Amino acid sequence: MPVSAPMPDTDVNCEACGSPTYRVRDLEVEIGKPAEQLLWHCDACDHVQVHPMPTPEQISSYYGRRPQPGLKRRPTSWAGGHVKAAPSYIRRLDRISAGRAATLLDVGFGSGSFLRAAQARGYVVTGLDFNARNFHPDFPCDVREGQLLPGVFPNESFDVVSAHHVLEHVEDLPQALRTIHGLLRKDGHLLVEVPHDLRSLIKRLKRLILRRGHSGFTRLQHLRFFTVRSLRSALERAGFQIDLCRSIPSYELVRFPQSLLVTALAPLEYWTGWGHNLEAIARKTVAAQSSRP
Question: Which of 112, 124, 159, 250 qualifies as a cystine partner to 102, CB 3.0-4.6 A?
Answer without folding.
Answer: 159
